[in-house]
Amino acid sequence: MSQYDTGLSHGMHLVHDGPPQAPPMVLIHGSGASGAFWAPLVPALAEHRHVLRVDLPGCGKSPPVDRYDVPRQAGRVAALLDELGLRPVTVVGHSSGGYVATALAELRPDLVGAVALVSTGPGLDAFLPQPLILRLLLAPPFGPLLWPRRTDAMLRKGIDATAAGPVNVPAGLIEDLRGTSYRSFRTAARGNTAYLAERGVPERLAALTVPVLVLFGADDPRWEPSSAHRYEAVPDARIEMLPGVGHLPPLEAPGATAELLLGLTAQGVDVPAAGPET
User: Fold this and answer.
1) pLDDT in tens, 219-238
2) How far, in Å, CA of 113 to CA of 265, rounded?
């Protein structure tokens, strides 16, 4: 598997994996994470795809910016793809990264051949009461006080709280999480809320003509798992519920997740139903 780091482009850190001539697949992480989040999937994906992992602004190795609204972040990804001359791409977003993926398809349908949403809530009313560790770390009044004091153990506990069970955290992810400022995280979170308040994700995707794959953990503690079925409003969307999996399918079930993503192309989704992780 070939890998190369192109550094910063349009304010975002970018890493390539796999053969450059293969069909391109862009992986977009969720709030406060980084491209390192996808590491367990990369070996399988890079055998068949040119995989691009971005660190969104203010996350990982990307510097902070003034504006974090979702369409603006999608515009940055579009500019990067234009610079690289890549199209059509399969764009994959985890959690709030799915909003950036959706906005990219809305903004530049010429660039996007297919969309995959992994644990991406369809609307604000599907958001569940969050685990205590996340409420303490992420929200006022304690968040601004605890954020600078986060230890590796606290961050790992926060990750575990979003999964159905303990997970192996990819190398570099904890360091990247520590590098995200509280201001960047909260500003991006407000941008995500505004995007959903304006219009739900299924409604946005239903207005497009792009193949869609939706992956949800059946035991997701952040979003009501049954809300995944709202994506049935998207013509020809495929919805996959992963049993025994929480909010982090790429870490909890990397084999099943990679198999499903590899089946997503501009022609649609054509893979067997995902079975238990082996």
Assistant:
1) 999 999 999 999 999 998 99
2) 7
Which residues are CB-contacts of 40 (< 8 A; sequence separation ≥ 6)? 168, 170, 250, 251, 254
Residue entry with tokens 């051949």: 113
Q: pTM for this one?
A: 0.94
The domains found in the chain, sorted by start residue, are 3-269 (3.40.50.1820)
SS3 per residue for the chain: CCEEEEEEECCEEEEEECCCCCCEEEEECCCCCCHHHHHHHHHHHHCCCEEEEEECCCCCCCCCCCCCCHHHHHHHHHHHHHHHCCCCEEEEEECCHHHHHHHHHHHCCCCEEEEEEECCCCCHHHECCCCHHHHHHHCCCCHHHHHHHCCHHHHHHHHHHCCCCCCCCCCCHHHHHHHCCHHHHHHHHHHHHHHHHHCCHHHHHHCCCCCEEEEEECCCCCECHHHHHHHHHCCCCEEEEECCCCCCHHHHCHHHHHHHHHCEECCEECCCCCCCCC
Phi and psi, residue 28, nearest 5°: -120, 120
Cis peptide before 63 (omega within 30 of 0): no
For 22-53, the pLDDT digits (tens) are 999 999 999 999 999 999 999 999 999 999 99
Q: Examine residue 129 and say whether the peptide bond preceding it is cis (omega within 30 degrees of 0).
A: no
What span, in angstroms and rounded, lies between the C-alpha atoms of 153 and 202? 36
Q: What are phi and psi of 17, to 5 degrees?
A: -135, 150
